[in-house]
Amino acid sequence: MGMVAPPQGIASAYFVFFGVYGDVTRQARERDVSRQTLYREAAQTSALLEGTAQRTEVERLLEQAQQLQQRVGDLEKALSQAVVIDDDRMARFAAEAQAEGVSLPTVQGLLQRLLPGRAPSVAKLGRWTHETAAHVSTLLPVLDEFARAQVKQVAADEIYVKAPVLMVVEPDSMCWLAGSLTTQVTGEVWAGQFAAYPALEQVTRDAGTGLGKGVALLNEKRVQQELTPVADQLDHFHTVREGNRGQRKGALRLHQTFTKAEKAQQEHDHHRQQGQHVPGEGAKVSLQWKQAESVMDQLMRTEKAWQQTQEALRLFTPAGELNSRAQAEAVLAQTFPELPDADFAKAKRLLSKPQTLTYLDEVQRKLEALPGSTEVKEAAVRAEGLRRHPELLEGEGISARTLRGVLLVCGVILSKAGEEGSAVTKAVRHIFRNTWRASSLVEGINSVLRMHQSRHRKLTQGLLDLKRLYWNCHTFRTGRRKGKSPYERLGLMLPEGVDWWELSKMTPEQLRDKLSALNGAI
Known about the structure:
The protein is mainly alpha-helical. Helix content is about 65%, strand content about 5%. A five-stranded mixed beta sheet has the order 3-2-1-4-5, with helices on both faces. A hairpin with a 3-residue loop joins strand 1 (about 155-160) and strand 2.
């Protein structure tokens, strides 16, 4: 928009910029104003005609607009990083904390630091968690229905949190299949638990009476139904632990015997230095040293026998050959006499049970059922055994060179077999990788409960269900299971992009429909 300068301003500008000497003074007298007034009017008129004021104002407004745009950008960036902490997020935080074993007062304290004056009370957090757990308890039967159909092997145990909890875990996936509070631990109760797995082939357990009876009752029922009995595998973890405990007893006895002999020797040497003669003391010291040497010899024989005993329990022998029940029993028959009953009674009792070597029978059964020629399967098994014992191939001895030749021949056989050789090698490794002989994996899940138990006075079935769903949906961060959840490792397909919290909000009907669409109807 243009502006017209006042006539007096134009006149003043004319005399200032274009007049001759004396024109400004004369004009000031005629208007009865000072000369400075004319100079000011001339400057204002010039600035008005040149648009300086408008440009200055425009520049100021542009700068202000740029500042406002920068402010908007900063606010949008901050908003993108902001988290809306509403009731739903706080309820999820409390539920996940409970699933991890964190107490509700600790949860409330953490929220108080994050939201001063806005954190819910412990009671409110408890109500949210209870509501979530109650709903999860209605969803788990649906998930269990689909998950249990995938299970072929389980590890079972009992943990006591003022009341017994029946724990069942699938070893390969670490999927927590059952965590049930119960009033009694009997064979009948365990048989009912195992009956829920239609494709079950093996149960790995400790020597508990209820567990053993439960497997026996299940197999009786299966025989009546003309079904294949479940393989009953006695846990090796507890057996080896008892043997190591017996070994430590022998080491302690050796230490005590040598300490006693050394003390007697020091007393004898002291008496001799003092010129004292104690009748029979030298013979006594000599006898104690002989006893100490005898204990040492016995301990060395025991260590060797116990090492051979442990090797007899492994899938492959020290020579890299596939172990068998006959070979293992032969080694145990040789080592048992060298293991004193005083230290190894419980370990020997467990080792004497036929269920200790069940896994070897299962491996042989699976290998026989594997399609392919016998020659190719034997080559794959031998190659796998040597692959697991690379130390046997090292060096320039006759044995090492012979075994390297054996490995080469196995490779040629598998190579000539083509696709069959590749398929058999893969299948053999899968069989060996899924051969479980210890129920210690279930102890890993038990530790989840122990962590909760150490911080809480009470553990309800609802909390057990909450912890079980959270565990089965969480993603492993390390190890060979890295990047997958227990449900995924088991083979159960869940809705894509749905985490455990969103899953917990579904109705049982919605969850069943989605699982049926992804996994097929049960």
